[in-house]
């Protein structure tokens, strides 16, 4: 019997290339984001079918706030539309919605919708969709360090007791396991401030395909590539005799 294909438990995605996809077609950037939202929908479904338990999507970074107001408004309205149109699928599939990032930076109506859906899906246990919104890896670590410093100041924690677990426990979603597979579309060889702490041993898959063109078939290629990787976590498996 051939081995069952190895499925990553946690897939994280840097969804890049919406603007280029639109440019190549002489369309406004927002059309690229709209088509990207269709990829989001397709990839969420495909991950569910594969049995991927955690899917983290880098939907808006802390750095993205410098984009033109019209583009930011367009992205926020796509997010609102996504929540309105896809919430029922979270319920049908018992998938929990989470957000990592500075949710307080988002427009209030979006914060309210997100909080409502987060609460309504909090008890589901068939999978987790994690949206990184106004997210930055350095901001996340800074936030964790501030919380730890407060505990030290209050006498609850000794500096010498701080270890890697302490830091991991103060990140935005400490209960979520580190990603097994990080996908980046559109060929850029960068991490772009995404999950800096969590990706220490994550397998990277970078494809030239632009995010709006990344659908089920492309996800299948990424998962197949992951299945062929040998994860060693720093170990060579060779031992002194
Ligand atoms: C990067 O493309 C993409 C983003 C900054 C936003 C991602 C947003 C979506 C896929 C749509 C909405 C999301 C959800 C969750 C419904 P880019 O604009 O940087 O592309 P470029 O590098 O080609 O210019």
- Counting DSSP H or I runs of 4 or more residues, the number of helices is 7
Average of the residue pLDDT scores: 96
Structural domain tally: 1
- The termini sit apart by 34 Å
Oligomer: single chain
The Rg value, from CA coordinates, equals 19 Å
Q: What is the N-to-C succession of helices and strands?
A: EHHEHEHEHHEEH
Q: What's the CATH architecture?
A: 3-Layer(aba) Sandwich
Structural class: alpha/beta
- Hetero ligands: farnesyl diphosphate
Report the sheet-strand fraction.
5-15%
Annotated CATH homologous superfamily = Decaprenyl diphosphate synthase-like
Give the strand order, joined by hyphens, for the main sheet. Answer: 3-4-2-1-5-6
* Main sheet specs: 6 strands, parallel
Write the layout of secondary structure elements.
Blueprint: E1 10-14, H1 18-24, H2 29-50, E2 54-61, H3 69-93, E3 95-100, H4 108-120, E4 127-135, H5 137-153, H6 164-169, E5 181-184, E6 203-206, H7 216-228
Parallel strand pairs: 1-2, 1-5, 2-4, 3-4, 5-6
Helix pairs in contact: 1-2, 2-3, 3-4
Bound molecules: farnesyl diphosphate (FPP).
Describe the structure.
The protein has 241 residues and is α/β, with parallel strands linked by helices. A six-stranded parallel β-sheet has the order 3-4-2-1-5-6, with helices on both faces. Helix 1 packs across helix 2. The structure holds farnesyl diphosphate. The site of farnesyl diphosphate has 20 residues, from helix 1, helix 2, strand 2 and helix 3.
């Amino acid at each position: 019997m051939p081995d069952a294909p190895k499925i990553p438990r946690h897939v994280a995605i840097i969804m890049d290339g919406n603007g280029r996809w639109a440019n190549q077609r002489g369309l406004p950037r927002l059309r690229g984001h709209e088509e990207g939202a269709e990829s989001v929908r397709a990839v969420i479904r495909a991950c569910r079918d594969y049995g991927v338990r955690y899917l983290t999507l880098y939907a808006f970074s802390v750095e993205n706030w410098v984009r033109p107001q019209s583009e930011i408004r367009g992205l926020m309205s796509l997010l609102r539309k996504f929540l309105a149109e896809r919430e029922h699928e979270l319920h049908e599939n018992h998938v929990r919605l989470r957000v990592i990032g500075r949710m307080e930076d988002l427009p209030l109506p979006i914060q309210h919708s997100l909080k409502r859906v987060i609460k309504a899906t909090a008890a589901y246990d068939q999978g987790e969709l994690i949206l990184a919104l106004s997210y930055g890896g350095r901001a996340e670590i800074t936030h964790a360090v501030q919380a730890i410093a407060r505990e030290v100041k209050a006498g609850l924690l000794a500096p010498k007791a701080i270890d890697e677990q302490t830091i991991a426990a103060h990140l935005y979603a400490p209960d979520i396991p580190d990603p097994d597979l990080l996908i980046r579309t559109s060929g850029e060889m960068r991490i772009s401030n995404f999950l800096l702490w969590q990706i220490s041993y994550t397998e990277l898959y970078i494809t030239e395909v632009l995010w709006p063109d990344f659908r089920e078939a492309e996800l299948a290629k990424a998962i197949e590539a992951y299945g062929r990787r040998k994860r060693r976590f720093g170990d060579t498996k060779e031992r002194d005799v």
